[in-house]
Amino acid sequence: MLNWKPRSLVKLVTLVLAIALFWMPIAPAYAFVKVDGIFVAGQACEALQSIKKGTNPGEVTLVPDMAYEVTGQNKPQPSHYQVRVKGVNSPRWVPVECGRLFTNCSQSSDVGQQTQPETEPKPPAPNTVSTDNLLAISWQPSFCETHQDKTECQSQDASDFDAKHFTLHGLWPQPRGKEYCGLPYDFPKKPWSSQPDFDSELDDETLALLEDGRRMPGVESFLHRHEWYKHGTCYNPQSEQPEEEYFEESLALLKQINDSSVQDLFASLIGQTVSLTEIQEAFDADFGPGAGEKVNLLCDREGRISELWINLAGDIKPDTPISELLETAKDAESKCQSGLIDPVGFSS
Fold it and tell me: For all residues of the chain together, what is the average pLDDT?
């Protein structure tokens, strides 16, 4: 039997441990890496709370073509990016192959690689025309009740076109949040007057319809610029005349509503209350059974009807009957079930 002295035993154990550590493979140190950039989803991917556990409370998924703020990646050669999703309290993890990362310098299509800086990173625009849209039309007297400082509200008169007809707010590609497509991330969203003028891109007839202040009074406050850059850039960016197509078709849709029983209903009940059911029946009468189910009635805090939001489905052309676009559109949900059709003038 060997008789080890304590000091010799300590030396032997130390030697064995040193040899073991020398031959042990060194594992890479994976750690969170901070990233400052934008991730543009290419598909509807799950946004995980935990990569390891695969948990996804709320079943959150990214929306294709939407941009999300990136706060980090899970390791130097990442498998996932950490992004912020609107309406979700904590950041979520999405696989790198779900879309494209744009850093402050460039687009990174290959994770872990550094590329040369570009002049200005831009989120990509959709490749096809939007076929899921929402037409937002306003009842101008109600709008002016709550926006009395607006230029277009200072000279309202009962004989004005917008005193008895709907006006254009905008045509919004869906889903909600599909905005500012193909624009630099530092694009000025306010004030609207600071946004680039695009009048030269519009045909004379379309420009005249906008500038006469009847169909879109908000032009005086540069609403048309806001609507184009926020929503129009996502409508059909592959068009040869994207600005013209967006406004020509928006105005054509507005005209169909203003030439219908819906406008007649509103004009005949100014100063009175109308129900959502009555509005839906007017839509059904002119645009086909079920058309009224696609309409969301919006009212302000005082119970005045402010807008109609109308769901549309299909490729819109200047001569497309709105009945066709309503036929396959998704049903709307209205919190407001009735409201006052406000007359011109400030109530307070």
Answer: 85
